[in-house]
Amino acid sequence: MQIIPMLINGKWVQGDGQELINVVNPSTGEVLAQIKNASKAQVDEAVRAARHAYESEEWRKVKAYERGQLLIQLAQYIRMHAEEWSLLECRDVGKPLTQARADVEAAARYFEFYGGAADKIMGDTIPIEDGILNAVVLEPVGVTVHIVPWNYPLQITARSVAAAIATGNAVIVKSAEDTPLTTHAMTKWFADKLPRGIFQHITGLGRDVGPFLTTHADINHITFTGSVPTGIEVMKAAAQNIVPVTLELGGKSPNIVFKDAPMEQALEGVMRAIIQNAGQTCSAGARLLIEKDVKEMFVAKLVKKFQTLKIGPGEADVDMGPLLNHQQYLKISTLLKQAKENGYVISGGETITIKGYEKGYYIQPTILDGVDANATLAQEEIFGPVLTILTFTSIDEAIALANGTDYGLVAGVWSKDLDTAHYVASRVKAGQVFVNNYGAAGGIQMPFGGYKKSGIGREKGFVALRNYTQMKNIAIRYSTPNHDSE
Ligand code: NAD
Prior knowledge:
The chain is of the alpha/beta class and about 475 residues long. It has helices at about 40-55, 55-60, 65-80, 80-95, 95-115, 155-165, 180-190, 205-215, 230-240, 265-275, 290-305, 325-340, 375-380, 395-400, 420-425; strands at about 5-10, 10-15, 20-25, 30-35, 125, 130-140, 145, 170-175, 200, 220-225, 245-250, 255, 285-290, 345, 350, 360-365, 365-370, 385-390, 410-415, 430-435, 455, 470-475. The strands form six sheets. Strands 14-17-18-13-12-19-20 form a seven-stranded mixed beta sheet, with helices on both faces. Strands 9-8-7-10-11-21 form a six-stranded mixed beta sheet, sandwiched between helices. A three-stranded antiparallel beta sheet has the order 5-6-22, with no helix packed on it. Helix 5 (about 95-115) runs parallel beside helix 6 and helix 10 crosses helix 11.
């Protein structure tokens, strides 16, 4: 069985940890590979190597456009090996091949986008007085740490790593214990293309290995994508050394459907928003807020759509794959059992056994109705294909419901009326609002991040480059040269 090696200080090494941690294909239960925990000493070595590489003349001399070209070459490589990488991601996460292919293309686009931006990261000049040139320059922050979740491992690694390398930092990635495979593929590509220590990959269980990184005194920035409780831990750890954090956390995002919505698009949008990646998406549309007048019609059609969905292994390229692991499967099947006992389940709600894939973690896409807006099922991230319906009778009630959780990542508004759409979009507390669509095809260019407990800061787009740069003001006084004129 392959043990995924880490890349530390230019060397391929296994974690010092004794335990072998299985990387499992959620569609089949098959063990694909294993990882080991990095030790504190190994994390220390990685940070020292990153610091050394970052401060080196060799890295300093790499021109901005050369960093950009390198990232663009990686994008090209990813496209050339798209099918191979898609299969890796499909097996590692259990996602349907079409979704895995979209993730691979998104990763290529992140490298392309930030590769193109590398030599366009401009500072500013500020007028002070005659004899002073005041320049504001953007410098890299130094050593950046990237802690990645298991749901979109390739995309999420690509989006922050591309921006950090484009801006000239030394990067350390800690992949999620369940899904290290595509990060390993990326590491293999970077290994001989960048100076030693500029890109490193650490493996291991988050609760063991994560704190070695987040409490380290010699790192300069942490990008963490994951759950709220872990985000709080990361922020506390980073506070010890006043290290800035970008936190991309969870959500309980609403799709708000008004009676004048474009109904067919809304039905498709609401369904896709919760079944994508089996609901294991930070921006999943986990709540349907529906106007009372059209509820019966809309929900009846939605139930029909849910019941035609094909569930199965990722490689069969079905509509929805399995949950990620046994822990997720147990958590969600227990929640569904309770929901059933309370009479909330109007569609789905059962686990599924698929012939030939008996060890896969399959559940039915599920719709809940009758849940109180303040109940856990309507408030907390379930991270599975479970849609909770809430009903409203006025626009202000819809907005209050939309804003009535601790999260604020994404919201969908479905209405053909421009006034309604604008009014709601301006009052919903969410980092992204989509009108008559949900997700805008991924939107590499669009700032993405959360209000409230959904996070701090923004990723994607040009704005994310700021996470990886530090601003320096340089004021230069010059004198009037003494030229003798004859
Ligand atoms: P998680 O918080 O359990 O783990 C995320 C990462 O943190 C993993 O690499 C894990 O190994 C590591 N980790 C765990 N404990 C740690 C610690 N104490 N210190 C440092 N690192 C630690 O999250 P998950 O279960 O992998 O992912 C699901 C969560 O991620 C959901 O809440 C989801 O909404 C969120 N998410 C957010 C976004 C976004 O962009 N907003 C995207 C994807 C997922």
